[in-house]
Amino acid sequence: MTDSAPKKGRVCLAYSGGLDTSCILKWLINQGYEVICFLADCGQEEDFKAAEQKAMKVGAKKVYIEDIKKEFVEEFCWPAIQCNANYETLYLLGTSLARPPIARAQIRVAQKEGCFAVSHGCTGKGNDQVRFELAFQALQPGIKIIAPWRDSAFLKKFAGGRNSLLEYASQQGIPVTSTKSKPWSMDENLAHCSYEAGILEDPNTTPPADMWKLTVDPKKAPDEEELFTVEFTKGIPSKLQYTENGKSKTVTDAVGILTAANTIGRRNGVGRIDIVENRFIGIKSRGCYETPGLTCLHLAHLDLEGLCMDREVRALRDQYITIAYGKVLYNGHYFSPQREFLHAGIVASQKAVTGTVRCGAYKGHFRILGREAPMSKLYDMEESSMDDIGDFDPAAAGGFIDVEAIRLRKYGVMKKEAGEDLV
Description:
The chain has helices at residues 19-30, 48-58, 69-82, 94-112, 128-139, 152-157, 162-172, 254-267, 292-308, 311-330, 337-349, 381-384, 395-417; strands spanning 9-14, 33-41, 62-67, 117-119, 144-146, 185-188, 193-196, 226-233, 236-244, 247-251, 272-278, 284-290, 355-362, 365-372. It is of the alpha/beta class. The longest helix is centred in the C-terminal third of the chain and has 23 residues, at 395-417. The radius of gyration is 26 Å and the shape is elongated.
């Protein structure tokens, strides 16, 4: 089918400017659709103007470049910081956090332009197809979704993968800046950069040194520790103070705080991880992630909670919210009743988490130098001191131990009667 084919309607395509989505753009046009291209600026280092010009040259009707950095940080990254969200302990969910605001911005454009469908370039094996499409269906129930990498005709046409795409690009006059591809795929936003596929699919292959885009090699990082201070208000980063070229700097806006934390983490090699994770669709996947700023803020917040968060509130949050919220984000259920429920718990848990953390970054490591929370009354130096009895009566501990030991004494008797020696 050619460009002169009858128009089937208007489609909003999530476009990156790369080979895949450029070929998808032309393929959709050749199928008879009028295509509106959408690019989300969520902090990635990208030439948006060049991508816009390329899309128009390929045949897009319009191109929207939407700046979503502020909403990305305030509405998505900060709640994740508040509840120490992670997936399988190590992954701080940089990609998962970005998908809901991208999907929301794409639906806004689709609605503005009267699009009957949205489209994306996600593969049929990954998590992102799930995240985007679940978001689309919650945001605009009933909207049609065109997923080329699950379309049998598209798959047949591009069965040769990158080589087939390059051949199609040549035939259709799609500009290709380079025919050489790095042996892995990459996705970047203000929170992190991820790497997967290609040579990384062998879990025993060490990532090459030139793969890491954001952070300096920890071994080549500065020989002097960089000091900075992070202030939190109800669990949300509200101020970051650091030194740049000998001058003291303070940032208080959300995007500025994460950007500054990234700058510190990047030049000190903080935030690299290499893991094998369980994708939502059931396949194990090896991923490498650089999360410099978010790692610093995550660890600083985690430390402050120890000073000013009630023990039982923290235990309940850790057990019922932290893990569940991470799964909600990872599995693409952000726009859901369970996420709303969990978010209410996050806000309630952070009422007392206000204070300041002094931090240090050095050759890939992050450490806490000190913390204070003047408004919190949970920590009392005199009460905690081993040298000053204060108002605490040590004799009371004996009764506490006796009560705690009741069931353990019974356990010991039961084991003895059963002939099991615990010694």
